[in-house]
Amino acid sequence: MDHSGHGMTTDLPPFTLGRGLEFSPDLFFLIGCLTALGLYGWGVTRLRRRGDAWPVSRTVFFTVGVLTIALVMCTRLNDYGMVMFSVHMVQHMVISMLSPILLLLGAPVTLALRALPVAGRGAMGPRELLLKLLHSRYMKVITHPGFTIPMFIASLYALYFTPLFDFLMSSKPGHIGMMVHFLMVGVVFFWPIMGVDPGPHRPGYVMRMLELFAGMPFHAFFGIALMMASEPMVGAYASPPASLGIDALSDQNAAGGIAWAFSEIPSVLVLIALVYQWYHSEQRQAVRQDRAADRDGDKELEAYNAYLASLQTRR
Fold first, then answer.
1. CA 294 centroid distance within chain
2. Any bridge partners for residue 164, and if so which?
3. CA dist 7 to 24, 28, 32, Å?
4. Angle between the 108-115 and 126-134 helix axes, to the nearest 10 degrees?
5. What gap in Å lies between CA 192 and CA 144, rounded to an integer?
6. Where is 10: in which H helix or E strand?
7. Which of 101, 113, 246, 275 is the most exposed, having the fewest neighbouring CB atoms within 10 Å of its CB?
8. Are 224 and 256 in contact (CB under 8 A)?
9. 3-state secondary structure 133-151
């Protein structure tokens, strides 16, 4: 059966990293990645032509984020992922936990709001539509932790441990839809936590860390459940092609190990980003307070000194 449209996955030779990284594009993701890079590049170019700055680091983060999607969806990793649970789990972890973080660090929404032209009075252009979406009730719901955390967890347990996964794997549109779902769930989960782009849900830094740690352990538990299973738990990978020379249970064990180990990577990346943002937020707040003190002649300090003096006179 041709699962992916790239060739007969039942005849794949044993997996090696070299074979996995061979170019084998999925047209949907190839076009999507090229479009994303093109639009981002257009936005950066538009800003610079009018003399506005845009951090190079954000461009690098976004580009690398898109490339990680291309890495797992436009190479033979995608072919092997149709018949090897371990390779599929690499795809899932990258596209749902690594790619979204890198894309969000690129601040694409902020770039769009700055680069898109403002429509005329009363008109509704792309920028106005984007602002309307950002302030919509729908966006408030899907970026709220009461939605994002359960959805993040359900994308593991409700998908892999029910017949839904086998149904989606049986067709190319189903497989593409599942991968897009993984990416979107990762984006809405990490968006409020990362706090780079504007959004309807923007908690404080401590709450962001709590949201992060509320979701991550379930990936570890999921991985452990796969490693401890005594039989294949996912029908699509229960009978791997003989040409691969692998055992289904051993491959599932490897998939569980990948899910368990990978849960630590985004936690570290996001924590570093949060601490960095927190530090710079405190620095900016200190600068604002210094400027306010310069403007009002440090009235707060003078008032406090007057208060101390009044205490002295009462003695």
1. 42
2. none
3. 9, 16, 21
4. 140
5. 8
6. none
7. 275
8. yes
9. HHCCHHHHHHCCHHHHHHH
First to last CA, the chain: 93
Structure confidence by residue, pLDDT tens digits, 160-217: 989 999 999 999 999 999 999 999 999 998 888 887 888 777 777 777 778 777 777 7
Site of tokens 């090696």: 16
Residue 13 DSSP code: P
Name the β-bridge partners of 23. Answer: 75
Give how far Cα 2 sits from Cα of 6, 62, 150, 308, Å. Answer: 8, 32, 34, 82
What average pLDDT does this structure show over 291-308? Answer: 60
Structure confidence at residue 88 as a pLDDT band (50, 70, 90): very high
Q: Tell me which amino acid residue 13 is.
A: P
Q: How far apart are CA 93 and CA 104, in angstroms?
A: 16
pLDDT tens digits for 12-60? 899 999 999 999 999 999 999 999 999 999 999 999 999 899 999 999 9
User: What pLDDT, in 10s, does the model give residues 210-250?
Assistant: 877 777 778 788 899 999 998 998 989 999 999 999 999 99
CA distance 79 to 12: 8
The position carrying tokens 């981002």 is 40
Token pair for 155: 């994308």
Phi, psi of 122 (to 5 degrees): 85, -10
Q: For residue 75, what are the β-bridge partners?
A: 23
Residue among 150, 155, 267 nearest 222 (CA): 155
